[in-house]
Amino acid sequence: MANYYTEHPEFDFHLSHPLMQRIVELKERSFADKDKYADAPVDFQDAIENYKRVLDITGDLAANVIEPNSEEVDLEGPHLVDGRMHYAEKTYENLDATRKAGLWGISMPRRYGGLNMPVTPYSMASEIVAAADAGFQNIWSLQDCIETLYEFGSEEQRQKYIPRVCAGETMSMDLTEPDAGSDLQRVMLKATYDEEQGCWLLNGVKRFITNGDSDIHLVLARSEEGTRDGRGLSMFIYDKRQGGVTVRHIEHKLGIHGSPTCELVFKNAKAELCGSTRLGLIKYVMALMNGARLGIAAQSVGVSQAAYNEALSYAKDRKQFDKAIIEFPAVYDMLSRMKAKLDAGRSILYQTARYVDIYKALEDISSERQLTPEERKELKTYQRLADAFTPLAKGMNSEYANQNAYDAIQVHGGSGFIMEYKSQRLYRDARIFSIYEGTTQLQVVAAIRYITNGTYLGIMKEMQENKVSEELSSLKVRLTKLIEVYEHSVNYVKEVGSQDVQDFLARRLYEMTADILMSLLILDDATRSPHLFTKSANVFVRHTEAEVTAHATYIKSFIKEDLINFIPSHTISEEEQ
């Protein structure tokens, strides 16, 4: 029987990373739960085996329930009936199967009914579900919103809502509005406190809300009358059982058809304040979005894997001129590049997840006791690493999912353009990944300060010190030279002293950064597991060499005056012209 976990040894490889020891130690509080809960691990190896059991169940359901349902879900999609969203019929089967398997609230502490799993294995489960159906992964992975409620809500709210999510109730984050997309400071959904009813009332419209008719919503709303910026926004918890919200419209989308994208109308909807007023955008949404971006990175890797699987299978079976097309160098070249991007993208995804795991666990511990000076230093180190790596993991993997889905159709030739083949659905589904939860352009904005302040360069030079196998030593030499080229490019842009030039060249610097860091990671992976990653290391480092060299050449030849030739004239003042 097929299993999307056991078929891919890469998962166990990433679970064996040295940082997992520290992650488990922190997450399990030195295994304090072992005397309270029958399913709590007694030591590190027992914890890893627990994660593997959950991933095995996820892999089985993904391959044998979710994926077989995916075509019907794509064709039917959700529909609107009397102001309520109804999932596709097969989506209800997926929900029922994952609930019975206990795959909801799995990152939450056991005292609320969760499995206390770290972000890293949870992200693996998310990747596996996405490989089966990216649309259903959206519905399922939005349970991650409960992390924000757990982190910032009161204990009363935790006890009220977290067990419901662990039992399988769905969630959504209601942020965007018709006039507030990426610029969330423009959110105007109104929140007013009603003294008589002793609760907040929400009024207004939300748009493009993924899984918008969920059971429990986190809603960004304007609580401070007269304000028009982010300082007047707060976060609220809305419970569908309270009523007051209707679905006005379900978007008809290019892809991820199983995931409902709703326009919601709030009319005196009762809600609870989550955390403190005025911190909704500047603190809570930032935490929410970082988790969501890691989730999209996992979703992207899952679809990249599915696209590679489809292309590889077709290339082996399809014959032209009396031989399988995989034997043609042009096809094999495409497949090798797909696999290299998949492996490198997965490596930065789980490196980021491990960084998040350590700092989040330490933050959680700090709410229970005072951290030692060493722990505070450790928290700051890993939070900084997580903040730096998240925009790379989300941006690059979402782009790679698009590229791999594109190449999967190309390998199929004309058949890839036919709706009966799965590759066309993967292509449609992938297109949104580089748009929602922060476009790739916004990931560049998030990363650029770490480029210009030398954070990434410092990380590269630290990683350069890692030993690689003799077989990979020539690749390391090539990367050493590329890091020098990268440093010169960054310094050149800084020396120009123009914000416009920096902004214009930021995407090229971003891609150079990500390419080099992923190359260093894949070299480390190939050293630890040659049979899994040596081929991808060879392909990806050469890919990086080509990309970095091209970007560096472009940057080196760019001067401030060139902006006149590239930026539309109406955006430049007469003085600048």
How is this structure best described in words?
- 58% of the residues lie in helices and 11% in strands.
- It starts with 9 loop residues before the first helix and ends in an 11-residue tail after the last helix.
- Helix 5 (119-132) packs across helix 9.
- It has helices at 10-15, 19-27, 44-76, 89-100, 119-132, 134-141, 146-152, 155-166, 280-317, 329-366, 373-412, 422-430, 440-452, 455-464, 473-496, 499-528, 530-556, 563-566, and strands spanning 79-81, 84-86, 171-174, 190-194, 199-210, 216-222, 233-239, 245-250, 261-274, 319-320, 323-324.
- The radius of gyration is 24 Å and the shape is globular.
- With 577 residues, the protein is an alpha+beta fold.
- Helix-strand category: alpha+beta
What is the average per-residue confidence, as pLDDT, rounded to a whole number? 96
- Main sheet specs: 7 strands, mixed
What's the SSE pattern? HHHEEHHHHHEEEEEEEHEEHHHHHHHHH
Percentage of residues assigned to helices: 55-70%
Shape, principal axes of CA atoms: globular
Features of this protein?
577 residues; alpha+beta; 7-stranded mixed beta sheet; 58% helix
Task: Summarize the topology.
Blueprint: H1 10-15, H2 19-27, H3 44-76, E1 79-81, E2 84-86, H4 89-100, H5 119-132, H6 134-141, H7 146-152, H8 155-166, E3 171-174, E4 190-194, E5 199-210, E6 216-222, E7 233-239, E8 245-250, E9 261-274, H9 280-317, E10 319-320, E11 323-324, H10 329-366, H11 373-412, H12 422-430, H13 440-452, H14 455-464, H15 473-496, H16 499-528, H17 530-556, H18 563-566
Parallel strand pairs: 3-6
Antiparallel strand pairs: 1-2, 4-5, 5-9, 6-7, 7-9, 8-9, 10-11
Helix pairs in contact: 2-10, 3-4, 3-5, 5-6, 5-9, 5-10, 6-9, 9-10, 9-11, 9-12, 10-11, 10-16, 10-17, 11-12, 11-13, 13-16, 14-15, 14-16, 15-16, 15-17, 16-17
